[in-house]
User: Fold these one by one.
Assistant:
Number 1:
Amino acid sequence: MPIIRRLPDNLVNQIAAGEVVERPAAAVKELVENALDAGARRIDVTLRDGGKALLSVADDGCGMEPEQLALSVERHATSKLPDGDLTDIRTLGFRGEALPSIGAVSRLTITSRTDAADHASAILVEGGTVHPVGPAPGGLGTRVEVRDLFFATPARLKFLKGSRTESQHAVDVVERLAMAHPHVAFTVTDEGRTPVRLTSCTGEEEVARLGRLGAVLGREFQENAIPVDAERAGVRLVGHIGLPTYNKPTSAGQYLFVNGRPVKDRLMVGAVRGAYADFLARDRHPVLALFLTLNPHDVDVNVHPAKTEVRFRDQALIRGLIVGALKHALAAAGHRASTTVAADTLASLTPRVAPQTSLFWEPQRPTAPPPYAQQHHAPPPVNREMAEAAWQFQAPQMRTASAPADFAPAARMEEADAIAATAPSFPLGAARAQLHATYIVAQTDNGIVIVDQHAAHERLVYERMKKEMLGDGVKRQGLLIPEVVELDPADAERVGERSHELAEMGLVLESFGSGAVVVREVPAMLGARADVRGLVRDIADELAEMGDAHALKEKLDAICSRMACHGSVRAGRPMNVEEMNALLRQMEATPHSGQCNHGRPTYVELKLGDIERLFGRR
């Protein structure tokens, strides 16, 4: 029969390395976190062959003494738990822990020097074999070099991707940590390239954070970011979130941090989705960076070996804080829309191919003559009379009573006195015309605004319906025959425990045995043909995953959205000047009016300078 035996230390270290060091980027993460905990103000990462041949992390932190250097490569040696309390983790990693795992599968060299030491010290670990500490040249701080990663476990090398892919993973790790530490400078060098070069940001916390986010995520995010700062029961949430109209097709642009640690938490992702539920379609995702700070005793960071997942003691508090803070920030943005909407509009208006013919001949530069100029003389310029005659010939025919035009209707120009009477001093300007009975053109102080009347009014009706629903409460409709919904015993218990909260939202139910609930009343907005069973099962799934009943809220919001769509001004309806201006003023006074219920922009703003550049006047 099989005999139980103790594994050798090198095999134990290799198993631990398989849990912690999945790829070169995982080793970079552990080493950069060590440097941050050491108080570094500058961290330089060097890669070769995507980190497989060499990855080096150098910092200017506090360094380690020779005795500490020897302990740092031993298993279960760390400086992270000074009091031995696993629930009080206030650092990212510091020295120890991951170092012996990395040394078990590579050739690891650590060179470190403290401020009080006369010279640096170094230690070498090759495939788990530890060499003695000796003197070495080096400045203040620590430099960790990992060569030939996974040479002791060649099978792991077969599962790694190409060098460029592994390098990109390492860059992503550094950028995420750089977002949480804007006052630290970072560089990443890879085969002569420097994909990351971030200088330390100065100024107040919010200013420095936004500057670092702009350097990592781009100038567009910095221009379309909304600040978030909220606190509840000792938990603080700060960061910046993108406007709803600045979105992406995937959630890759969402960066979440807990006590300075990058995480991928389903609870936080679900809270973000719930906060943007009214503004984005299901297949669109916001861009944001949120930083959550709370007592270490209220969060467990040891759920995953790589510490990318966390578990909160009070999940309802965290979700409520995130949803409330994000909705408050979005409401404060008012009718603001992202600048990318105007940029995309200008890009679509700019011709991609130069016209091949022209009414006027323009002489070319001598350095780049036209093809025909090499053999023939340049054609003479066309005189003005001939040009005007050609222009009138090519112009569209004017509409008359006897000969109606079949081209698209032009803008309805308002009278001159009506235009002069309305000053474009409002944020969305004053209405000037309506195009195709669908789009309102307004003039602002320094540009124009084009409004989709149906999308804009849809948002206005939707917000008004939600406000009325919150004020008067959700109206309920009793079922003639109560609906019995069968569930798993655990799901039925969860739903039954939250029956009082569901009743506030219009759904009256009670437990009906060990594996079912009976529904007696439903929200009147759902109508008589509501899928009661499907609704209750969706709520049960959401309770199991998130711990609340926000599925019903989303269902009601979806019904409100549909009703608002049918009750809004339809495209193709002519509007007079008073109606158009009234719509613009309502948009300015209504939060979230910059996008419709489906996440599309309700208006496009073009600055005068952009229009002038479009026509070559600048």
Number 2:
Amino acid sequence: MSRAGRPSRTNLDALREQARALPREPGVYLFRDAAGEVLYVGKAKSLRARVASYFGAEASRSVKLVRLVREIDSIETFPVRSEAEALLLEWNLIREFGPRFNIQLRDDKSYPYIKITVTEPFPRIFVTRRLDDDGSRYLGPFTDVGAMRRALRTIKKMYTVRSCHYRMPEELPPRPCLDYHIGRCKAPCAGLQSEADYRGMIDEILEILGGRTGVVRRSVEQRMAEAADAMEYERAAESRDVLRGLDQLESRQAAIDPRGGSHDVIGFAREDEGGSVCGIVLRVREGRLVGRRIHYLGNVGEEADDAVLGALVKGFYLRHADDVPSELLVPEPFEEQDLVEEYLSGLADRRFRVRVPVRGPKRELTRAANRNAAHVLARDRSEREEEPAADRGAGGVPPAAARLGEALELGQPAREIVCFDVSTLAGRESVGSCVWLSDGRPHKDEYRRFRIRESEDGKPDDYAMMQEIVSRYFDRRVREGHPLPDLVVVDGGRGQLSAARQAMDAAGVSDLPTVALAKREEEVFRPESALPLRLPRTDPGLHWLQRARDEAHRFALQYNRTLRRRRALRSRLGEIPGVGPAREQLLLERFGSLDIIRRATVAQLTRTPGIGRATAASILSSLRPDETEPGYKSGDASGSTSDSGSGEGSRAGPF
């Protein structure tokens, strides 16, 4: 790259040569800058044709492409067997690296989910705001929290789902609990309900929560009739109560399709040219609206509407592959629509269709989805406190900052807020995070993450972990003379608050206002008060605290998952002959997952310092024993690697 930010003629010619040497087969390509950062991830039916198009005359017609080409320093490619496989790999890599030239899909993290622990022999059902990669089913997110909780209460009255937290059958109580004696549980813990009977009950609940009440109603009516014929009136009464519960649930759902169809409906809205984009997924089952999901798109820039819609559809359904409907209604055609239909039909094991209705009730549904998205954007503008200066109060201070200063008796508005959180899984890979919000908006340059030292006994201690990360953060902040926040927030209760205050006292910043925000009741704990403060649910100051808490949790959980993936990668690589701890670490720094290593070529692996061709071949033969599989290459053939470096030790980076 030249100092002016434009690629030199020599480098541009080299990139064109690399593109012409690529294979004519499906695959995924990555563009990197001179520092090795991933700029863009794309997929292609023909790698040679698609990559070469970036360096032709057509690319100069787009401002975004001109900027991208100026920064490209090297190209990585991964040939695959089909376009469908490339589609999935592309989105996995976008999620992994978050390239700044790709459209990014982000969930709205503020809404709860219903979690069903289907991996357990006797699953539990409860509400959560955390999405863990543990094999459980998550339904939601739910925007109408009150309606969700009412529906869940109705279902728990209809069915005897256990409320205990025992890890059955390894952990069992000495005797059935009170729920058994009052008829709310059939005591599977005591062997009074079989696993098959309990699992059948969970299957019906999943159908109901998925909006498919008709199937369950017919099954329950048949059971009630059979029980009545057999004069088993108690069992018939149980089925009758389930039918009454179904009536209550259906009466609360909005009937929006008079023909009783079942489909998803997608709409979206954008604020302005290059502004925020919100996507809405309406879930209609048997003619009734049973749920709504909200997603945001970033890095949209000047992308056309069909490209935005395509990114929304692909990003959403590739991440929610367990809940694919038979039909999707969209407001207009989008990029790679046929490929999405083919791929999702294979996932769902049934025909999946994308339709663009032009008239009638289905057209009204797409318009309603677009209106929903526009409404969410308007709500977000209000919550971001982007009012005119006249509405901001003295000095242009956001009302939420002024409200926090008043409610917490800070003596000044709380415009600069830091929040701490810890994340651990059974005491392993314990990490901490610190996020900084400036006037309610993330200031990501000030985000920090911490790898927490393991305790001597190996047991996690939430208070000690909080004290450690707060101490490390402020010790360095004071030592280097960086600005301090107006308010410090910790995720937790009084114990976490006390631990944080001890660390701050030792660091010499005891004068900074500090509070803790507890999740269950959203109580605010303060050091100087014995009683927690409860702000109104509509209080803008509370919204800021929740936003900081949720962002800190997201950032910590993301780091925890990264370390867990690396641990899994290290354990698998350690079994390969010739790969010791040092090489494990080097591969870990250059690659993101075993799947990406498995798709790499020998030449790509040998660019990792210390990995020669023999070791690279050994790694690939261990990770994919069937070398005859089509679409995979084990050498330099076809130009499937195209970094302009000389090979061994050319660059450290994710690949």
Number 3:
Amino acid sequence: MSFTVHGLAVSQGIAIGHAHLVSHALLEVAHFTVAPKHVEAEVTRLRSAVATVKTELIGLKAVSGSAPSEVDAFLGMHIMFLEDPMLVDAAEALIRTRRANAEWALVQQMEQLVEQFEAIEDAYLRERKADVVQVVERVVKVLLGHPGHLPPKRKDGLGTIVVAHDLSPTDTIGFKDHAVAGFITDVGGPTGHTAIVARSLSIPAVVALRHIRHVVKDDELIIIDGIRGVVIVDPDERVLEEYRLRKAAVELERSKLKRLKSTRAATLDGEEVQILANIELPPDAIQAKGVEADGVGLFRTEFLFMSRDTWPDEDEQFEAYKAVVKTMAGKPVTVRTLDVGADKELEGATRAEDNPALGLRAIRYCLAEPKMFLTQLRALLRASHFGRMKILIPMLASSHEIDQTLVLLEKAKAQLRERKIKFDEAVPVGGMIEVPAAALCLGAFTKRLQFLSIGTNDLIQYTLAIDRGNEAVAHLYNPLHPAVLRLIHQTIQAGAKAGVDVSVCGEMAGDPDCARLLIGMGLRQFSMHPAQILEVKQAILRADAADLTPKVQRLLKLDDPDRLREAVEKL
């Protein structure tokens, strides 16, 4: 019987294929007592399973060169968890003290770690609890002798739709080789690894379907609508034919977009627009170059610091920043300084806070750790000698923070001069507009900084007091709220008046539906994930800035969110 389920679309596209259910090994783990003489053998059995999984992960990491850089980062994170004494050593202790079987001991320790992750405020890090679960699941499968594999390619030409409670990034590396057309999961969100990998591989995916794994049967025909967030199970012939036509149209549109790669982004009335790329790791710059981005608008450096035991030293950071600058070959590269908080655990620097989102994070954290911050600033300055680098400071709220940062930057320059190391003496410094206080006091920013970048993700959350990672209030997260749009508009206008470049690097920049709105506000610099660049470029090429400007001016006077949304749709 055909039925439809609605979830969260995290990777666009349409997929048609047969269901392949991925088992969840941790749902049922037996608990039994081990005889005293067999306790050490049980510990050895656990160590052997952990070693097997670690070897598999290291092997996957070695061959993941063609996979997105996110996959490589996740593999490193999983290996790190296997080496964490809080997981494996603690499980061994349980085996010895409770004389428990290895599977049960490991799962018990995993549950304790998951509880700790659930207390973290940051959405990205909170969802890393899934990585702990997946690592343990992989070890449990080895202990139980159920490794699990994807089916071979089907003769009917249809792909495989992976149906799971959740998916590990390690599961995704072989997706293309197994003709996986898409995947659907019970859980997940836009910042989860499933979503990140899906977008990187351009595989349609719908998540947060709750109990989809329990209502779908193996080999059932499934349609994934990754545009609307709809999953259709066992569709009738009429619906199937409709989606075949839609799928062909989507694929045709994608192939047409590739023709825009070398086209200069400009509106119909000749307004030039810069389209830049957001990246997390140095290899991402290759993807940005592949779609001929105008540069890197946001290099998130925190990914160099996370999933490791020690902070990266100056030379390691310098090599990473230099690699990106050289890859972009003369195009601008905007590097954001470390954006972490107390909720993001860095070795030897954990602070307990009741509300980390409003605590010591981003630039506040860096100014509280001047030695670490100076190390990063020196590495950035050294890399500036090899191309067009710009330094971006996150979460600024006052002129005092800007002044402190500039003092430290001058100190870093003096230290490099003493060492006779070359760098760009006039490297531009900019600030992120992420909190309402910054958007409402822009004069202090435009006087001290060379450029501004609007981080819409945080600006929306702080303006509306909504955590979009919290399912209870996520539906209230509204990029088109009048207050949010006015803050964005006045930031763009203040920048233009002061002769300071302004870009948008949050998710709004990568949304084609928002492109016309932002063009009408006066925005001429967009920064987004490389996979979104061509679609946004197409929207810009179809826009008329002169026609949009007065329409957007009228639209911004609306106070009712529903009326405003309707007005945006009419643009």
